[in-house]
Design a protein that fits this description.
Largest sheet: 5 strands, parallel
Number of domains: 2
Order of helices and strands: EHEHEHEHEHHHHHHH
Structural class: alpha/beta
Strand order of the largest sheet: 2-3-4-1-5
Shape: elongated
CATH superfamily of the largest domain: P-loop containing nucleotide triphosphate hydrolases
CATH architecture of the largest domain: 3-Layer(aba) Sandwich
CATH topology of the largest domain: Rossmann fold
Number of helices: 11
Strand content: 5-15%
Radius of gyration: 20 Å
Helix content: 40-55%
Length: 218
Amino acid sequence: MNYLIVTTDPVSAEQDALEYAKSYNPSDVFWVKKSSDKKEITVDVINDMINQSNLSAVADKKLFIVFQAELMNTSAQNKLLKTIEEASNTTVLFLCQNLDRILPTIRSRCMIKYHQTKENKTIQQLETSNPDTTDIKKAAHQFMTANTIDTALSCLPILSKPENLTLALYALNHELSLADFTVEKKLRIYQALAKITRNIAANCNATNTFDLLLLARF
């Protein structure tokens, strides 16, 4: 059985995958990631994975963990179809944040599970109790897709309200994971979001830090 794990928290999902991998012989566990010089997981990476899957397992079965599976380009995903359908000595664990970027042909060959962390459960509770939840999500989406600084600026009042900060950061991180920005720009925005998070943890005035987020966005 192959699994497609959808997560909003890739770090936590990776840690859980490592725990799951402990049930396999260490020599039979392989991580599949994009090359450092590429923006996608390309066919050459998948070819290496397929070649490895064709070899006998040291113990009972091999485990391949595909990190950021949504980065596989179409050719790479198509190349995998036969392997995940026919390989009897291989389990593939796909970790992804955006299920829409996974081809239907891959999805149909996997059991889809939604990764839950303590943070996810807290967010679900906050979403239920906060009357601004819908507006927060809309504002986060508008902020990350805004074409002008004025449009982005108009989103900040609801996002920076103290009682909305946790939900706002969650929504902004989610929208950033979907955004089509350069790696450098994403990193700048992630760093600004991380600073807001640190200010919250330190009981500092996090709302002022949104100026840094605005600068990182533009």
